[in-house]
Amino acid sequence: MFKKILRSYDYSLILTFFVLCFFGLMMIYSASSVMAVQRYHWESDFFYNKQKIHLVIATIVFLCGAIFPYKIYKNSKFLMTITATTLGFLLLLFAFGHVSNNAQSWFRFGAMSIQPSEFAKLVIIIYMSAIYAKKQKKINSFDSGVIPPVIFLIVTCAVIIVQPDFGTALIIFLIGCTIIISSGMRFKSIWKLVVLGLGTVILLSPLFYFKKDSIFTDVKMGRIYGFLDPFKHASEDGYHLVNSYLAIGSGGVKGLGLGQSTQKLGYLPEPHTDFIMSVIAEELGVLGVALVIGGLAFIVLRGIRVAMKCEDPFGSMLATGISSMIGIQSFINLGGVSGIIPITGVTLPFISYGGSSLILLSLSMGILVNVAMFSKFEKEYKKKKTNVTGLTDYQANI
């Protein structure tokens, strides 16, 4: 039995995950070494060493997610606990949160920081998938089991927007939408949810009005102006994007060589987090970019394939939500550094520096691998059982 379980794991997903993590660790050292000395007067390997610790924790979390059966997350008490805890911590940020990058989104404990909104992504995926899986027979009836996940989604996004953190709120909202679309609802029912969502936004509009100064800050609006015409605002709001263009353009096909980036020498403000892809493009060229995008695309497409093959609605929606989270976050980061969309401060999955993000994504990957394993194992078990039953019937007829 144990050997059959081991054979059922999707090792291509596991390998891709670790390749991206270790590649990211290497690029974090390259991107952050100069900044650590110049800006913070720390050792050149400060961020590299911290990310190594994050990666060790992330590996443990990944293994836990890959080993424990994903169906335990459907327990009602567990769902109530994680939803209440998530909202509680998000609200506590307004009293005890630490401000970083103009958003009050962090709890600071000495040298360690935790971003609750990162973990809210997975909580949304688990909660909405579990409720809609339990209510499959009434998925279009709009009873008490269908509406609460939408309300929880909207309230969570509203709280995160007020911090303000538009990037994370957008990711969470889009994740929720993908789960709703994949839940089995008819288009008519989805349209009703759209109307309900618009009504809720209208009801919450006074909150946004009174908090408009903290939500639509000069920094947030500056990102819009910098996106629309970065070269016109090259010395101010467009500074980040212009230097990202220079980094990407300088790399060419082969790149300047590992460690040879010029833009990381104080020109790119966050070379190891938001703009790490710009450094990769400058140092490793098209090949480095292709490795990252190819690895992320493989995980997303493989996750969608797992969702399509999984016969359990809960597992299928979990796989869909996790795949969409990685895909949406990747698009928002890559779109920001390349000027397709405004810069939001969202990190690149598995590559950028950050403990909360890496640990959350690792746990999510572990759950995705577990869903893939159980789906394959159960299919092989059913197939074997069918074959045995068929053989028995044949022998009886003889």
TrEMBL record:
UniProt keyword Cell division present: yes
Catalysed conversion reaction: [GlcNAc-(1->4)-Mur2Ac(oyl-L-Ala-gamma-D-Glu-L-Lys-D-Ala-D-Ala)](n)-di-trans,octa-cis-undecaprenyl diphosphate + beta-D-GlcNAc-(1->4)-Mur2Ac(oyl-L-Ala-gamma-D-Glu-L-Lys-D-Ala-D-Ala)-di-trans,octa-cis-undecaprenyl diphosphate = [GlcNAc-(1->4)-Mur2Ac(oyl-L-Ala-gamma-D-Glu-L-Lys-D-Ala-D-Ala)](n+1)-di-trans,octa-cis-undecaprenyl diphosphate + di-trans,octa-cis-undecaprenyl diphosphate + H(+)
GO molecular function: lipid-linked peptidoglycan transporter activity; peptidoglycan glycosyltransferase activity
Keyword Ribosomal protein: no
Predominant location: membrane
Membrane-crossing segments per the record: 12-32, 52-70, 77-96, 116-133, 145-162, 168-185, 190-210, 275-301, 322-344, 350-374
Record Pfam families: FTSW_RODA_SPOVE
A Gene Ontology cellular-component term: plasma membrane
Record-linked PANTHER family: CELL CYCLE PROTEIN (PTHR30474), PEPTIDOGLYCAN GLYCOSYLTRANSFERASE FTSW-RELATED (PTHR30474:SF2)
Protein name: Probable peptidoglycan glycosyltransferase FtsW
Originating species: Oikeobacillus pervagus
